[in-house]
Design goal:
The chain is mainly α and 160 residues long. It has helices at 4-24, 27-50, 54-73, 78-105, 108-127.
């Protein structure tokens, strides 16, 4: 159906797009991207678990664990972050352990628990995003004279 060189080209294009997004992202946005990646990997794992596709389930869970351990945990600065960073480190370690158990016991509840934690943390990061534009809703300007929709409008065309 598809030419294999086209698939390689499309894959390369997608990878360039992802790399460009990572390069252009702020450190804050990178953390959010890590949460998104872990959530996507766990969603895939749930799908593969339901399909009883053990190899793909394991690969997806391993990917999620790698994101949590080598991305989220590795980005913590415990000297600067103090107690908050220590608590996040323990939480990330807990999530990785739950995903390992989910894989060993084939239990979707463990994955769902980790997904809830990831979503909560992600929404907290989004709430404190320093780059988020604050939209201030200003009231619509008042017209000096009320607008009457039934009154004929003046035309702008010229008669010759």
């Amino acid at each position: 159906m598809f030419n294999s060189s086209r698939l390689v080209g499309a894959s390369a294009y997608a990878n360039v797009g992802m790399e460009t997004g990572v390069i252009a992202a702020s450190p804050h946005k990178l953390i959010i991207m890590l949460y998104d990646g872990a959530l996507l990997a766990t969603t895939d794992a749930l799908k593969y678990m339901e399909e009883k596709n053990i190899p793909k389930k394991g690969k997806s869970l391993s990917h999620a664990i790698t994101i949590i351990d080598n991305g989220l945990r590795a980005s913590l600065d415990k000297k600067v972050g103090g107690e908050i960073a220590e608590n996040l480190d323990a939480l990330y370690q807990y999530m990785s352990q739950r995903l390992i158990l989910a894989n060993l016991k084939n239990n979707p509840e463990y994955i769902l628990e980790v997904q809830k934690l990831l979503r909560d943390l992600k929404s907290s990061w989004e709430a404190i995003d320093p780059d988020a534009k604050k939209v201030i809703q200003e009231p619509a300007p008042r017209m000096s004279t009320p607008y009457d929709a039934l009154q004929p409008r003046s035309s702008n065309h010229i008669e010759a």
